[in-house]
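Data deposition worksheet. Section B asks for the primary sequence of the deposited chain exactly as it was used as input, without tags or linkers unless they were present during the calculation. Section C holds the resulting structure in token form. Section D is free text for depositor observations; keep each observation to a single sentence. Incomplete worksheets are returned to the depositor.
Section A, Depositor: J.P.
Section B:
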Amino acid sequence: MKRISVLLVDDEELFRQGLRSLLEKESFINEIFEAGNANEFDRQLGLHSVDIILLDIKLPGIKGHELLSKLNTKQERPKVIAVTGLEGVELIINLLKSGIDGVVFKLDGYSEIVKTIQEVMKTGNYFQEKTLRIIQVNSHRWDKVPTVSLSFHENELLKAIASGLTTKAIAAELKMTEATTETYRIRLIKKLGVPNTAALMAYAYTNGIL
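Section C:
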């Protein structure tokens, strides 16, 4: 895994300092930047190139998913992981629909934050089992997408994605390289007309593919 630059976005300075002190010890970390509000967020992104953003979804004056929506207007954006102390279903659904790349809960501890960062950088996204359950139970609430005829391989790929497997595990199961697997995932998103991987999962549940 290449060394990455991280932007910590949280209005609690003590939390930022604690997380920063731990992340600085990790071999995959290059630089760490901090922001405590929307203005600092914009300033840091204007000054620095970052690979991943650890985003608190409860910031003064603006919600995390609103910042995410702003980022989505850019042609290329860093990967974004929501780091939250809240676990409300509505909150998670809104984040998933906004195109978040990962969700980690503060109560899960530092090791889960590191795991989520590593999985998102390796595979593009990562969702814990409890987040996958939220997608499954609420799949009917995603925007309706017409059923599309899928090939056998597309169907198998969609099953594997919706099961929450990593790109590496999917590649091994379907006997493809990780690069090919990722290419097919992107093609599948375009073919089904959905915005992101969470919506792919919801499509699979809604259409009885699992």
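Section D:
The chain has a mean pLDDT of 85.
Residues 4-126 form a domain with the Rossmann fold fold (CATH 3.40.50.2300).
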